[in-house]
């Protein structure tokens, strides 16, 4: 049985004060919803210190939305994996399509980020996914395969054991267009098969999350698919009720 995970990517939303209120609301609601679900919240860097304090000893874990591709030094504006981990953060989202698209994140940079995350005890949530054009031209399989081969395949077995993958079709992120449960399952099965080539039976344990306009009313059908182990949630993670409503989809 793989872990069931619902992770919220808050992106550049909420002030630290609003973020603390949101986490408190999630904590308040979680008693009635939690069950076997592992909840992770990924607020902006500025909130991590407070959010890790109020979630300590609770059922919620905390992730960052990125980390630097260098360990330390003259990199103005960057935040290192070590700094993040020192706050008690457990996870880090890497390779989100917004980072790839707007900030030029290449596989080379992502390799460095993943290694620094592991070196500091952070669990990467590595995002892959195709654009609409890539899907419509039939290139989706090659694109996702390359995103896996170029970054994940460099990991040792020990690192790979801790990895979480998020399949996020770019055309479904923040657009309200959700992949059908069958489309999600088809790609998740392909991802698992691709990972199996290199990591054999270890790939059977890798949590693969679906991301892209997941809401409380569509989560259940998507999470029911055999290779879907949860969700990476954007917009709906900003409301405690919706975030927990998605978790209730398990
Ligand atoms: C995301 O950006 O990771 C995401 C899945 O966003 P949304 O749920 O808003 O589509």
Name its key features.
250 residues; alpha/beta; TIM Barrel; eight-stranded parallel beta barrel; 43% helix; binds phosphoenolpyruvate
Give a verbal description of the structure.
With 250 residues, the protein is α/β, with parallel strands linked by helices. The chain has one domain: TIM Barrel (Alpha-Beta Barrel), CATH 3.20.20.70. Helix content is 43%, strand content 16%. The chain contains 11 helices and 8 strands. It has helices spanning 16-33, 48-55, 81-86, 97-103, 107-119, 132-136, 140-151, 157-160, 181-199, 216-223, 240-247; strands spanning 4-9, 37-42, 60-64, 91-94, 123-128, 164-167, 208-211, 230-233. The protein has an 8-stranded parallel barrel with strand order 1-2-3-4-5-6-7-8, surrounded by 6 helices. Helix 1 packs parallel to helix 11 and helix 7 (140-151) packs parallel to helix 9 (181-199). It is globular and about 45 Å long. The two termini are 13 Å apart. The structure holds phosphoenolpyruvate.
